[in-house]
Amino acid sequence: MTTANATIVRFALNTWQWPFAPNGRRGICYLLFAALLFLFLPAGAQQPPAPYEVRTIAVTPVKSIRGLSAVTDNIVWASGTGGQVGISTDGGEHWQWHIVPGCDSCDWRSLYAFDARKAIVLNAGEPALIFLTVDGGTSWTQVFRDDRQGIFFDAMQFFNDKEGIAIGDPLAHQFTVIRTHNGGRSWEPDPISTLPDANEGEAIFAASGTSVVALPGNNVYFATGGSVARLFKSSSRKHNDSQQQSNKQTLKNGNNWQAYTIPVVQGSATRGVFSIAFLDTRQGIAVGGDYKQDTARAGNCMITTNGGRNWFAPVTPPGGYKSCVAWINNSHLVATGTSGTDISIDGGMNWQKIGNGFNVAVKARKGHRVFLAGKNIAVLDPEHKGPATHGVNTGLLEEK
């Protein structure tokens, strides 16, 4: 070693040692600075590896799947383009696919499954059609049709086995709302006087059928995008003895809607909230972004803890545009879209990518498994179980 090199080494050692000198004020300051620096590092930089992986379990004949409904860990339905609807009774390993008669050009973006025999599908576009099966997809009955120009339904949800709601884009500056009170066998529109008003250029995205949430107590939330991104919410809750009757009357005659701005990216037809998920009436999350710029992370995710009145951004947002978000448990979430599939294990505050993207993700209503769908079907495994195929990027088409 040359004298010059030895001098450099001694200087480096002395530089490393001086902060830790017991009587050095500079050392104390340095230690305090280092501690503060570590304390305020973004939590995402300190996250452990995500305890999940995406595993593709089925290849489908469908070009694009956006409807997905899991009743249990074994019973799962899927729907999409070409009028196709599929059912699996073994956890997604094997599927039976059906084309609803006369609907081979329909795109079934909204789907709700009641059990292994009964399911209902709603298309995006005009005419608006709802079909019901009660024999596992072998036969279908048309239960609703709307031929109005510009009709476009975005999502359908059920409060229980009888009461359901579907919401669509504005006609004459009012969002479209229809309801069923007999398990989907017939549908009726809400009175015009009760329909929520839309701003010019405001609409709902039908990217995954998850822009509408139905919660107990007749709580209905839906999110919008375009010129403005807002959360519309309604509730019939009253703190008196007429609670139950009030709920029934509201289910029949419509809701009193309130709207709150969600500070995601907005202002154009490709931006806004594409999916919402709520643990209860207060704790929720909204994801989206700009599907034409699907790697942009700014303003693609917002969190609320007071039912949508106020929103805040996560520390580490998901990695780009997301078309769907779902709760796995009280603190874990999954979000997916063309930019990939991301996981949060701290209530949405920090996200990390675990695989390629899908259109939609759902958790079984009466189970714990999480299914994803795009072109093919996948599951979210909580731990490594051998070789895995990390998703299939569906090359999503235009979202609207």
Automatic annotation (TrEMBL):
Biased composition (Polar residues): 242-253
Gene3D superfamilies per UniProt: YVTN repeat-like/Quinoprotein amine dehydrogenase
Region (Disordered): 234-253
SUPFAM superfamilies: Sialidases
Domain of life from the UniProt record: Bacteria
Protein's name in the database: Photosynthesis system II assembly factor Ycf48/Hcf136-like domain-containing protein
